[in-house]
Amino acid sequence: MKAQILTSFLIGSNLVNAYALKPRVISPGEKLDKYDYVIIGGGHAGGVVAARIAENSKASVLVIEAGPLDQDEEIAIVPGKAGAIMGTKYDWNFTTVPMEFAGARSIAVPAAKVVGGGSVMNGMAFDRGAASDYDAWNDLGNKGWGWKDLLPYFKKHEHFHPPPKDIAEQYGITYEASAHGFDGPIHASYPPFQDPLSLPWIKGLNSLGIPKERDGHNGRALNVFWSPNALDPKSMTRSYVKPGYYLPATKRRNFHALLGNTVTKVVTKKVGKKIVVTEIEYTTGPGAAKQRVRVGKEAIVSAGAIGSPRLLQISGIGPSALSKSLGVTPVVDLPGVGSNYQDHSYQFVFNFLTNSTQAPPPTDAEAAAEYYANKTGPWTRSGPTLFAFLPFKTFTENATSILSSWKAQSPAAHLAAGSSTEVVKGYSKQVEVLTKRLATNLMAMTEYVWTGGSVLLSAQHPLSRGTIKAASTDVFQQPLIDLRYGSNPLDYKVLADSVRWLRKALQTAPELAALGPIEFAPGPDVQTDEQFAANFAGSITTMFHSCCTNPMQPQKIGGVVDDKLKVYGVDNLRVVDASIIPLIPGTHIQATVYAIAEKAADLILRGR
């Protein structure tokens, strides 16, 4: 019944033309023998790159995507259902190995298996990092990847909608038009439903000397600010790669897509002194026959932070020792492939508000009825759109001493056993860059997300580094995923100080203290660094921002791709997805991945 209502709802919206397009999905028999560009993965980044390259009518483009198109289900496009798609057929359903420093726990790590990838699965937060987050990429040797370089690409993909006047006045939502794009394919707008308890949170932070920024999209994603969702305000549905890029691209005759096909190998050949990609091997499923397609100009790997390094490894591009252990002949020895895994983990501080006068929230059924009837209510919002990203020295007096402890550590002491010399050097350089930038007030260290009393905390620049390793050459077998949360003990120290500051804020800011907050987890008995570390080890989990496993930085310091996103040692192979990020930025990474993909498309087309 809900599906029928939603279909009728969409027919009455301006999205109907996009949703009514017939995708140019081809069968294996319709496939050409060769394409100029073969994109491995039609997800968040791959879908963007493929669509942009196809705008050049002289270029033939094939996208090979393991997943299907979503069917406009609630779990895919209704904001109030954001996240419900995890664990379904649209998810690879990856699981980590037991993590040594996180209570020997294995946790689920969602990774989208659907056209549009993470843009279908994420929580719709549409913010950017601070300028310093991206300038740090330049510091690592990546020319052209600083804030000013990326800003045009942040704007290129965005179709910004200013907040409704009544909402803006009630909640103090402000913006700077110059920071936004107004004709891109991805809608960015503010849900008409907001949490009234956001107001005491803002006022409480202000009373503690933390200002509200005019617009976090202007390079100052710091302190407290409002940010839009990836939300089409006309239909009140998710704005993502499928309607924004993929479906329009299917109208182009030079754009082909093979869905439900998984790439099993990047086939290379030595031509003179160069190694080139000649073919891409793929299959419809376990045990099915493998097929190949020839690459005319370039192959572009966009299989995500987990899938991309695993594919390179089983193709002989990665650590030679790993390739040999898999029975694969090494093609290029790149120790950085699968290293440097970073993620925003999070920890909740749960509070009862004993003196709140807010009415109980509507039931799920009531929210659904309001959404379908009026496009209003809680289901128009995927989650909080008010964020607080605090610089290090804002929330702890220990910032300088913690940074000194970072610098004093042996670079290899807390990395995975057997990390190569190159990877260790890269980590050392990253610590050097971070200690310099985090000592200022221009880079955030901890995110605080207020959820009506309880607060989500997430350290934005963890020192712990995880790994991705192929378990076999079978792409349908789970890879070995180790986030290695807490492997650097200073990460738990940062989180402990983050909780201590929050406790003090809730008790000393008049607007927050008036709500009568009482903490019930971790609980007031958790006080020492050791107690906090034990608590975090048993509860910390992923915020779904997996990245950095094919880092863009010089090869001599563990880099996998250069600043043109070309894989070192292979003439016509690039990686374009969250795996190329060298240092995770202090933000939810959706908009950053769009910007990376837009810039990559320009680099590819200009280079050819």
UniProtKB/TrEMBL annotation:
PROSITE patterns: GMC_OXRED_1, GMC_OXRED_2. Coiled coil: none annotated. GO terms for biological process: secondary metabolite biosynthetic process. One of its GO terms (molecular function) is flavin adenine dinucleotide binding. It holds the Pfam family GMC_oxred_C. FAD binds at residues 114, 263. The keyword Flavoprotein applies. The active site is at 545 (proton donor), 588 (proton acceptor). Its cofactor is FAD. Residues 112-135, 304-318 form the Glucose-methanol-choline oxidoreductase N-terminal domain. Keywords: FAD, Flavoprotein. InterPro entries: FAD/NAD-bd_sf (IPR036188), GMC_OxRdtase (IPR012132), GMC_OxRdtase_N (IPR000172), GMC_OxRtase_C (IPR007867). Belongs to the GMC oxidoreductase family. This is Alcohol oxidase. It comes from Ascobolus immersus RN42.
